[in-house]
């Protein structure tokens, strides 16, 4: 019963925040003159036919996978007290380099995919090393440097796709893109799994990279909670001076945390690259995962399990976007709802944290003999 009570205490603030978010969003929908109940029905409408439902589930999976990886990458910095706002640029650079290298080599299928994954992680880590070095050597804020590097990444990716990795077979009027990756570098999809489970197969590819994301999440959960690195990361984030007194170098932890965060960021673009696109193309590249990953990490409280649930929630809302538009609700409603969810969770968590702190302070004062004697002495004597 004790663990059930603890679980309920952890889940209750999030559930309260979600209810608040739904109510606030309902008020917003009323203000724009639409029906909140129709919007709520559209959120949970996966389609009328079996094929439409399978397609909706596939879109949900495809959207949740990069959001989870992005949130995981951001959470590494948050645990250290670092704000890696550069996941957006890191996964853009990593994706274009992985696409170019993957198209330039031909290897057996498992090895080919492994090389592409390692190249993407190395490229993301290398790009994240720039703000890490600037912070540890020059004291440059990682917030400023990573935001600036996001803008540089756009131009850098455009140069890669037009010069060293450009597809020579594309015509002058076609959109710049890298060479296509050979079939041995394609990650198997999950469409056949739907048929195995007796469901209709989606018409669009369902990225099998979700399996890799689950494995990465499990590994990171173990590393962050059971390893020396995870302990040093938490210790440095909670109190850098105390950690340094125990022989933990804050500068070394900044480098390690940013490199790991960048390596995970390098995986964000791979579900689309290896699952369906098989090349980097400027007009079809899906941007925005890095910035949304910040909200996902906050909502998931920087824990892999919570980040997975937050990614599923955000992907669920994104999936409902077209259906909401059919009900006359603008696409911005989804973004507003996501923002309200994060703000509600943060506000409810802060209120709960303050109440818990006041309760602990009262309990400590009640158990302190010196405090009790002072309170007794301060009370006026009552004459008989």
Describe this structure in words.
Helices cover 73% and strands 0% of the residues. By secondary structure, it is mainly alpha-helical. The protein has one domain (46-319): ABC transporter involved in vitamin B12 uptake, BtuC (Orthogonal Bundle), CATH 1.10.3470. Helix 4 packs parallel to helix 6 (142-162), helix 5 (109-138) runs antiparallel to helix 11 and helix 13 (289-299) packs across helix 14. The protein starts with a helix and ends in a 6-residue tail after the last helix.
Gap from first CA to last CA: 49 Å
Number of helices: 17
* Structural Rg: 25 Å
- Count of spatially separate domains: 1
Give the SSE order as H and E letters. HHHHHHHHHHHHHHHHH
Helical content stands at over 70%
**Which regions have little confidence, pLDDT < 50, spanning 5+ residues?**
none
- CATH level 1 name: Mainly Alpha
| Mean pLDDT level | 87
Strand content: under 5%
Largest sheet: none
Structural class: mainly alpha
Count all strands and give the number.
0
CATH topology: ABC transporter involved in vitamin B12 uptake, BtuC
Estimate the global geometry from the Cα principal axes. Answer: globular
Which architecture name does CATH use? Orthogonal Bundle
GO cellular component, one term: plasma membrane
Organism: Phytoactinopolyspora halotolerans
InterPro entries: ABC_transp_permease
Biased composition (Basic and acidic residues): 358-375
């Amino acid at each position: 019963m004790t663990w059930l009570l603890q679980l309920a205490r952890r889940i209750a603030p999030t559930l309260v925040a979600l209810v608040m978010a739904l109510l606030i969003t309902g008020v917003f929908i009323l203000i724009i003159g639409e029906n909140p109940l129709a919007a709520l029905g559209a959120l949970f409408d996966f389609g009328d036919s079996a094929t439409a439902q399978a397609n909706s589930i596939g879109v949900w999976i495809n959207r949740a996978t990069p959001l989870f990886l992005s949130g995981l990458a951001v959470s590494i910095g948050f645990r250290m007290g670092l704000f890696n706002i550069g996941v957006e640029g890191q996964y853009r650079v990593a994706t274009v380099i992985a696409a170019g290298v993957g198209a330039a080599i031909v290897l057996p299928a498992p090895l080919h995919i492994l090389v592409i994954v390692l190249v993407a992680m190395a490229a993301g880590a290398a790009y994240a090393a720039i703000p890490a070095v600037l912070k540890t050597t020059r004291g440059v804020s990682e917030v400023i440097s990573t935001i600036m590097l996001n803008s540089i990444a756009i131009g850098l990716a455009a140069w890669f796709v037009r010069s060293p990795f450009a597809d020579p077979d594309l015509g002058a009027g076609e959109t710049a893109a890298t060479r296509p990756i050979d079939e041995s570098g394609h990650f198997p999809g999950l469409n056949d799994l739907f048929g195995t489970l007796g469901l209709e197969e989606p018409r669009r590819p369902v990225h099998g990279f979700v399996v890799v994301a689950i494995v990465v999440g499990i590994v990171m959960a173990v590393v962050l909670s059971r390893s020396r690195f995870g302990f040093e990361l938490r210790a440095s984030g909670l109190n850098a001076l105390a950690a340094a007194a125990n022989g933990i170098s804050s500068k070394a932890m900044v480098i390690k945390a940013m490199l790991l965060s960048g390596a995970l960021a390098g995986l964000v673009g791979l579900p689309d690259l290896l699952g369906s696109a098989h090349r980097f193309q400027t007009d079809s590249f899906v941007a925005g995962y890095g910035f949304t990953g910040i909200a996902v990490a906050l909502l998931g409280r920087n824990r892999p399990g919570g980040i997975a649930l937050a990614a599923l929630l955000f992907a669920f809302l994104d999936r409902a976007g077209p259906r909401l538009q059919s009900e006359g609700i603008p696409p911005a409603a989804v973004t507003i709802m996501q923002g309200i969810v994060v703000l509600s969770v943060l506000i409810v968590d802060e209120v709960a944290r303050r109440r818990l702190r006041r309760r602990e302070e009262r309990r400590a004062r009640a158990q302190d003999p010196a405090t009790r004697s002072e309170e007794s002495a301060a009370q006026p004597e009552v004459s008989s």
